[in-house]
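Pasting as-is:
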Amino acid sequence: MHILAEVMTADREALRRSFARDFGREPEVIAEAPARVNLIGEHTDYNGGFVLPVAIDRTIAVAAALRDDDLFRVRALDFGECDEFRWDTVRRAQGWRNYPRGVAWALAEAGHHLRGADLAVTGDVPPGAGLSSSAALAVAAGGAVCALSGIDVPPRELALLCQRAENAFAGVQCGIMDQFASALGVAGHALLIDCRSLDVEPVAFFGPDVAIAVVDSRAPRRLADTAYNQRRQECSEAARLLGVASLRDAGLEQLEANRERLPEPLGRRARHVISENRRVLDAVAALRRGDTATFGGLMYRSHESLRDDFEVSTPELDLLVELARATDGVLGSRLTGAGFGGCTVSLVRQTQLGEFRARILGEYGRQTGLEGEMHVCSIAGGLKV
């Protein structure tokens, strides 16, 4: 896939050329939105809790130009696939097509009048890896469509519309984290997001000696076809049985006092969410004081909770975390994203990245027969049009 980072103007030119070749004219706008890696705070977002993602230098870019009718034509350059729909009669489709369609649907439902457009899409976010390629696609498409149609939607509002598109149109009951990280990311900073109040606070990341290494297990994941929505339902039921609006409002003492009211696995689901919210706040405190050891320890405990209490890990992800734990220079490691496959995120000393790559990928391949892939990520800014 094409890499379209901020400084890589040559690839942006390649996108322009592809658009001109396919549609017979130059694009009027290019919108680019980053993927995200969540450092800690998993499955807390839809429970009104706290998350700590970073936007990364893996992006989806959309080149676009207006048409003189209400038709949208979308070409996914990396897949060699196309889609066509009218924004005022759009219906659900399959796969990547749901995200441009869903954003058009959400904008129209919010009362915005759209103009037809041609769009070309490309990017270097590995699909199905847990880095939220879907949110990046939705935010980039939304940014392009709004710019072309003269719709003034602030990034925060666009992120909420993109979340609605994923929830109500694509059928994945995600929280707001992915869209907020993609639309509102700040270079060099993690984002502490309160998913109830929707307050966002940038927190400066560790210095340049600490790298963010994402390892793709190459174990495929499809959120709509997994237990993701089931976990959300289990959390809602656990909150109801505890007598709270959401698990954000519950504490561990309250959980223990009412354990007999929560049949398993609801008790373990609640314990993960409650303890994970605490870990996020402790991780932010560690980040502010530059305490890499505490931050890394919290990452390991997060993974153990996701593995044992929330049951969203896989043997491949567990192996990657254990290999990281046994490798010099690794400060912490955990699965990132919803789980059920996908990626791990590790904090690694820059000077030992080479050793980390060789050991993790080599041993992982020997034990699983899978060819993992490692990405060293920089923390990027959010949506650019």
